[in-house]
Amino acid sequence: MNIVTFSGSPKACDVLVFAAHPDDAELLCGGTLAKSVSAGQRVVVVDITEGELSSNGTLEKRREERKEATRILGLSDRVQLGRQDGALSRDEELLFALVQTMRLYMPKVIIGPPPICRHPDHQALHDALKQAHFFCGVKKYLPSVVAIDRPLHLKMLEVSEEKADLLIDISEHWETRMEAVMAYESQFGVSENSTPTFINSGFVESLERRYRECGERIGVRYAEPFLCTQPPEINLPIDLVK
Q1: What is the structure's pLDDT at 186?
Q2: How many CB atoms lie within 10 A of CB 120?
Q3: What's the pLDDT at 240?
Q4: Cα 150–chain centre separation
Q5: What is the DSSP secondary structure assignment for residue 194, as one 8-state letter?
Q6: CATH number of the structural domain spanning residue 162
Q7: How far apart are CA 31 and CA 29, in angstroms?
Q8: Maximum CA pair distance of the chain?
Q9: pLDDT surpasses 90 at 32
Q10: Can you name the residues that pair with 152 across neighbouring β-strands?
Q11: In terms of Cα–Cα distance, which of 146, 103, 108, 81 is closest to 13?
């Protein structure tokens, strides 16, 4: 069993996001993260892999981009678990790492991938998070790290916005969100040497339409959609995570 080693001393946070690859968190819930940070909350992102299989960009470039996106969003911390891109599975090692991370950061809200994902790594992370969310509250599971009360668990909704049961108004944070997304220039930009991919061929342009349509459903300019494992009491992220 490999236990995660952190460079510093993790502090309790309000929102803990698990993302299979760098840029996933920015793409799927960057506005909500910016909104939480602006409200004075501690927000932490955990990238499971470094996205080394990406068609464009070197590993060094991707690390620089991740650092810049972290600065733009104002995250309290960002953790890299160093698992192999393209090879995530719901195995014991990943489960241990997720449980340990949840317990060390003691979040009030967890955000992760949606239940049905196109990308196999996203699907594997969703399945592992579902188990980890349960075992983080079991005292005899990984007893070397103290168990915690299970936090509210949200799942990011990736494609089927019409199924969302929570829409968060991000209108005031749209520009910050997109600045953080575009910090990943190697992934979303187009240069003479870049390989055409799904995400650099009109994908970014579709984001505004997608989140504007979500906003129209609640009478605001932009909103991010979520699925919840339990009904939220009131609007996230400002009120519920106090």
Answers
A1: 74
A2: 13
A3: 44
A4: 18
A5: P
A6: 3.40.50.10320
A7: 5
A8: 55
A9: yes
A10: 109
A11: 108
